[in-house]
Amino acid sequence: MEIQAIHIREENQEIAEKWGLEDGQVVIMIHSGSRAWGGMMGPKYTKDFKAAMNKWGVGTPDPNLVFAPIDSDQGQQYINLMQSALNFAVVNRHMLAYGVREGFKEVFGSDFEAPVLYDLMHNYALKEFHRNQPMMVHRKGTTRALPAGHFLNTEAYKETGHPALIPGSMGTSSYIMVGAKGGEKNFYSICHGAGRVRSRRATKELITIDEFAESMKVGTDEEVLVNQRTLQSILDECPQAYKDVDQIIDSIEGAGLASVVAECKPLAVIKGV
Ligand SMILES: Nc1nc2c(ncn2[C@@H]2O[C@H](COP(=O)(O)O)[C@@H](O)[C@H]2O)c(=O)[nH]1
Ligand SMILES: [Mn+2]
């Protein structure tokens, strides 16, 4: 969870206003999934699908690549359980948001309000309609970014397109984007964050605590506050573990997939362990 201050991009000022965002506003970005419920299904269904494929006498070029027809028992079971994990994750994020609101109310008073801008997923499969046909779109480490006017948008976002949230790292900017028409070529999908540049282990071996502290501006007026007592305990999550988010955003905009509505600078980070 992160408390951030936003800067609105001039070219998308109108969209920002419609979404209730303004320059200098403080926002809260929350990131959580189903806490392993979804992850546990991967190995189980890889095994079950493989057994079913053997029975049906079908294979794939890669033994780790498995599939089941959507209408088969296995396919339906998988989809139902995946949806239960997605529901669990939505509730999880909303419970976190509730806790955040209660905390802010204690400090700022009971009339404090923080409406949800958007809630979205980045590991899921969803039946959608593209190129004049229904299809199951799998987004793994990918999030949806629909443009203005797209029929899949909910009513509130039909006119503008919906917000797509791209976290960077705890020491760098994150971004609120909106889908663009160019997204048609990849089913309106964009990356769900900067992404790792090195593994947790390599990060711990390579990055020093001093380098981590410097990237968090420790000891300066711009220090990004963290809830953990030591930076050592979250070294594998340091900004140096992640790619340069600004390059990633440039490539999304360059490919015409989405555009930045607001840049979000981190003020304080609460990391779960
Ligand atoms: N704003 C922040 N972004 C962060 C932080 N830690 C990681 N990240 C970014 O999130 C994405 C998505 O994470 P994933 O676990 O779902 O893959 C990741 O690629 C990073 O770019 C943080 O503390 N604050
Ligand atoms: Mn995630």
Automatic annotation (TrEMBL):
Superkingdom of origin organism: Bacteria
Active site: H192 (gmp-histidine intermediate)
Positions with a binding annotation for GMP: H122, N123, P167, G168, S169, M170, S174, H192, G193, A194, G195, K271
Entry's EC annotation: 6.5.1.8
GO biological process: RNA processing; RNA repair
Binding note for cofactor: Binds 2 manganese ions per subunit.
Cross-referenced Gene3D superfamilies: tRNA-splicing ligase RtcB
Pfam families for this protein: RtcB
Positions that bind Mn(2+): H31, H122
Enzyme class: ligase
Cofactor: Mn(2+)
Coiled coil regions, renumbered to chain: none
Catalytic reaction annotation: a 3'-end 3'-phospho-ribonucleotide-RNA + a 5'-end dephospho-ribonucleoside-RNA + GTP = a ribonucleotidyl-ribonucleotide-RNA + GMP + diphosphate
Signal sequence range: none
InterPro entries xrefs: RtcB, RtcB-like_sf
Statement: the UniProt record of this protein carries the keyword Disulfide bond: no
One Gene Ontology term of the molecular function aspect: GTP binding
Keywords: GTP-binding, Ligase, Manganese, Metal-binding, Nucleotide-binding, RNA repair
PANTHER family on file: RNA-SPLICING LIGASE RTCB HOMOLOG
Protein name: 3'-phosphate/5'-hydroxy nucleic acid ligase
UniProt source species: Shimazuella alba
